[in-house]
Amino acid sequence: MVLDASVMASAAAAANRHPQGSSSTTAFCSTTAKSLLGLAPSVRFGVHEKLSHGHGLRIRATSGDSNKVEVPRQWYNLIADLPVKPPPALHPKTHKPLKQEDLSPLFPDELIKQEVSEERFIPIPEEVIDIYRLWRPTPLIRAKRLEKLLETPARIYYKYEGTSPAGSHKPNTAVPQAWYNAQQGVRNVVTETGAGQWGSSLAFACSLFGLNCEVRASYDQKPYRKLMMQTWGARVHPSPSTVTNAGRKILEDDPMSPGSLGIAISEAVEVAAAHEDTKYCLGSVLNHVLLHQTIIGEECLEQLAAIGETPDVIIGCTGGGSNFGGLTFPFIREKLKGKLNPLIRAVEPAACPSLTKGIYAYDYGDTVGMTPLMKMHTLGHDFVPDPIHAGGLRYHGMAPLVSHVYEMGFMEAISLPQTECFRGALLFARTEGLIPAPEPTHAIAAAIREALHCKETGEKKVILIAMCGHGHFDLASYEKYLEGNMVDLDFSSEKAQASLAAIPQIVP
Ligand SMILES: *Cc1c(COP(=O)(O)O)cnc(C)c1O
Fold first, then answer.
1. Locate the Tryptophan synthase beta chain-like PALP domain: which residues (predicted)?
2. Among 150, 169, 495, 497, whose CB has the most other CB atoms within 10 angstroms?
């Protein structure tokens, strides 16, 4: 799609950066692979080692087109390769390690197995692959015009997940979640949504399998998202509501509560737990969600290999951590194997900085305290973030797996104010054409910082961006920015002090 003209140039540049190697594929090819091939350096160009599926080496020639790769057939479970395993989830009442049957009222058996699995690869069901093919493989695009505008020697690529029916990475997990529920004979699922991206993704997935879908929506900022959910047959209820104990409790304390993702999760979990025939779905944070999202990174490894590129920096935005983990975990595997060594950087909003300003502790995933306790970076389960435009990043916690990887030092994190993010988004839209969702503007703005840094130092780094969705339903945010009415909402450490004090004390 993009790359024909640039392939030779980038290959040459990549070879320069790895002077000990003789072709652009060096970084991806182990010595064994090369000696197996026994090819002359000139012939080796365009031949790559398949890294992603653990079938051992599979060598094949490519035409150098990053978009002629196959849809991966397995998800990757990073837990299998971590030198230290993440701490277990705990029962919310007893504080004892959670048992699989504790989760049975909420999730179908296969998803519970995936949640606690230590298998390295988990096969993707054939029917799910068939649905993935509606929009996968998603494009890997070189942002040549943005590079030119920035006058940077860096090469910038973005992996674009906005081609899915719902316009983001979320259907990557919505489809298998709906499928496993349907397989187990479940008829109804209930979930929460913040900005509406998850609700619409699950509504789409449920429509494929005839499941009833109920969405608890934390605020009504994106009216067209609600209509998408309804078009796909879902029922949408505002949250907080008076039909659940959780909602009533919140409204008693604050009748004007604007709601939050954490509150909507409490309501959805309560509905699922109270109904035998109803299960719960979550759009981020949990191990099985991040597992499903690794299809992004697996595919991207193949695409980069096909064009002989090696990322030096990988940047993604983090709300609950699923698009970030989905892209980066397969790269962390390669890092642990010593095959690649990219710097991996999470970017969070300055107004909701769970990694950079939160603490690493056991906390609830919801506001009321009904979910299991998870060891994660958190601002406190009753922290209600300011209403920034990146609604998908307004969550008090961070995926336990991303938190653990951060603690282990395999990645770093920064936070950015939203006006810088939208400034970056406009540069991106006016050079690359795509209008990003407010969430990935964080990754784009951080990539622009990195590219400008390269301009100063003259480094020809390869920067890879997780461009996880489009912003077609977020134009009201763009309107605010374009009219000059967008302000940066400061993180209030007093507010966080109060919510951090409410984190349960776990005696180990
Ligand atoms: C939901 C969403 C996010 C935030 O969730 P993560 O789990 O951190 O990925 C970010 N971007 C988009 C486009 C989303 O829909």
1. 134-469
2. 169
